[in-house]
Amino acid sequence: MKARIARHEIRDEIQRRILSGESKPGERLSQQSLARELGVAQGTVRESLIELQWLGLVESIDHLGVFVDNLDVSRICEAYEVREVMEGLAARLACGQAGRADIAELRSMADNIYKLAQEKGDEAASLDRSFHLHITKLSRNSTLIRLSETYRVLGMAVRAFREPSIIHAEHLRIVEAIEHDFAEEAERQARSHVIGTRQMIESQAVQDKFASARV
Predict the structure, then answer these.
(1) Are the beta carbons of 134 and 102 closer than 8 angstroms?
(2) CB-based burial, 112-132: b 16+ in 10 Å, e otherwise
């Protein structure tokens, strides 16, 4: 159990460095150096890098090593195309599963996201991810929950801010559809919500205003 916890901690630390820009695209990630720096066995680092490769953050090149992958607009939009389908399905499956406490929590999260967006963008983004994860967990579909981790991580690599009032209204429409077990409407609203963000990213790219979360 300790080894598993250590692996996830190491994975999260390497992931943080990549998403923050501390580790740059194309940079070689030495298992030996990381193991020595982080105080763990090379096997633990190797397993962590395999997980990060599955998430799309690193690339393994035969005979050369593991490198930080380049997360460009095209890659991010691909992730949003997958997210559109997955979160639409999650909202559909959440219908009939969500209790009153779940609905109340989702509404509270939506309201707090809106409030935080006025001043604390990073906190709002973190809570926004939690909001969507909560809906995904309500689907009770373990495969969907596991697959959603990929696009959630890639989504953290981009700064994509839309008007907070629009986001708030969209969130509430998703919650309302789930509350009333309107499965088709819940899926439609969830997909529309993700499409809005993807289209904004694409528009920013065309105008050369795309903002990566990396610094």
Answers:
(1) yes
(2) bbbebbeeeeeebbebbeebb
- What's the rounded Cα separation, in Å, for the pair 148 and 95? 18
The residues, ordered by sequence, that sit 6+ positions from 139 with a Cβ below 8 Å of its Cβ are: 89, 90, 93, 94, 97, 145
Rounded to an integer, what distance in angstroms lies between the CA atom of residue 4 and that of residue 40? 12
Query: Rounded distance, CA 121 to CA 92, Å?
Result: 29
For every residue of the chain, which 3-state class applies, written as one string? Answer: CHHHHHHHHHHHHHHHHHHHCCCCCCCECCHHHHHHHHCCCHHHHHHHHHHHHHCCCEEEECCCEEEECCCCHHHHHHHHHHHHHHHHHHHHHHCCCCCHHHHHHHHHHHHHHHHHHCCCHHHHHHHHHHHHHHHHHHCCCHHHHHHHHHHHHHHCCECCCCCHHHHHHHHHHHHHHHHCCCHHHHHHHHHHHHHHHHHHHHHHHHCCCCCECCC
pLDDT tens, residue by residue, 4-41: 557 788 998 998 898 888 998 899 999 999 999 999 99
pTM for this one? 0.79
Alpha carbons 157 and 153: distance in angstroms, whole number: 7
Written as one letter, the residue type at 167 is I
DSSP β-bridge partners for residue 60: 66
Question: What pLDDT, in 10s, does the model give residues 46-56?
Answer: 999 998 998 88
Residue 212's closest CA among 154, 173, 151? 154
Is 86 in contact with 132 (CB distance < 8 Å)?
no
